[in-house]
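In this supplementary section we document a worked example of the pipeline. Step one takes a protein sequence of length 363 as its only input; no multiple sequence alignment statistics are reported here. Step two produces a three-dimensional model, which step three serialises into structure tokens for compact storage. The input and output of this example are shown verbatim.
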Amino acid sequence: MDLLKNSRVIPDVLEFIDVIKRKKKPGRVHFIELFLDDEVKDVVCERYELAEGINKNDPFYNLKREIKIHEFLGYDVFRVGVIHKDMFKMNYINAADTTSIFNQYRESREWNEEHQGPIQTMEDLENYPWPRVSDIDFGPLEWLEKNLPENMGCFDLTAHILEMITFLLGYETFCYKIADDPELIDALGEKVGRFYIDYTSTLCDFSCMPLVWGSDDMGFHTDTLASPEILREKILPWHKRCAETARKKGKLYLLHNCGNIEKIMDDFIDDVRIDARHSFEDSIMPVTEAYKKYSSRIAILGGIDVDFLCRADENAIRKRVKDTLHVCMEGAGYCLGTGNTVANYIPLENYLTMLDEGRKYKA
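The serialised model returned by step three reads:
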């Protein structure tokens, strides 16, 4: 069986927005992902011959290919990464990529140095080559503004506030500096926060972007990476300002946040005023439980556990998707997807089975 080839989902970004706003029960299951790993997109594109007819010498070949891939898979919106990863200079550790199950292998994976980052003192902060939004090439969004199909939208990630602070300091250093040098934490937060407010504002000027996605991992398996008090004081106010910036320009503000953040969920909903939450693990809180608990206040996104998708067989995946949709499609405010991202170690057939079962579900 060649999954998805004989069925089609037509993107409908307007209904997708209504789903996130919880305005109505949708006419079908809508899909969403933070992103798909490049290896996954390469295999899907090759398997279904999606790039045929696109000139590889076209300067916008990659964007045209992205549209074809996501339209075929049935996504209403997809991520366009505008910021180059080297804009923020980090201390990286390289390791061989042993995860991909596809033939397309990365040479290595990069890991942020968790002990000491490039900033350790106020002098380091002052001398750091801080990026400016004015230095970013928004050419891809300018092209999409004119060429993205009307029934589709795009987004980018923003507000990596805690993540960027801990990357620049090193998480271990961050933990010490909270007590030993809180002024450095505040000064670093000011630099990072203002960059992302400016970036959020610029993204929201593009009509092809109906949303921005705040992406800031703040938890681990059992708790938050810093105390709720520290997060409320030093991190969440920047998310609130980014969310307010998006809201003033008529855009949705979604939250991707890995780990256990139950202690600050009410803050995100009532103070930051997120429109939706993404990233769920069965071992922390299954998405069906999250939907029952929070769907009267925000939309719930994804939640088909990544570890489960890696290990389960077809029948188990179909049952899991049906059981999830039975709960989460009873009302408004749910989109189907993985619990995190479509990583290069998820078997392709398992990922496509999830989508196929979502297409078959009668809303």
